Amino acid sequence: MDDKEITRKFRKGLYVFIALLIVEVAEYIIGVRVTSGNFIFMVLLAAPGSWLIVHYFMHIKELWIPPEE
Predict the structure, then answer these.
(1) Distance of alpha carbon 52 from alpha carbon 22, whole angstroms
(2) Rounded distance, CA 7 to CA 30, Å?
(3) Element spanning 23, H or E
(4) What whole-number distance in Å separates Cα of residue 2 and Cα of residue 6?
(5) pTM of the predicted model, to two decimals?
(6) Rounded to whole angstroms, how far apart are CA atoms 43 and 38?
(7) Burial letters for 31-55: b for 16+ Cβ neighbours within 10 Å, e otherwise?
(8) What is the pLDDT of residues 4-63, one digit of tens each?
(9) For residues 23 and 66, is the Cβ–Cβ distance under 8 A?
């Protein structure tokens, strides 16, 4: 790997981390401020956060892509 590719991967990881941080802060604010009927909001916010974790940090796509030789 060259330096540009490593920098690109670190930048992508940082963007994903920032997106997760924003989603988690939004979940916290909705959980604290909305007293009733917040379940649907929590589910809607949990879905993108879960996808980001599974896709970028757990590398789920590698289960279906054959390894390179």
Answers:
(1) 12
(2) 35
(3) helix 3-33
(4) 6
(5) 0.74
(6) 9
(7) eeeeeeeeeeeeeebeeebeebeee
(8) 888 998 999 899 999 999 999 988 888 888 878 878 888 888 898 898 888 888 878 777
(9) no
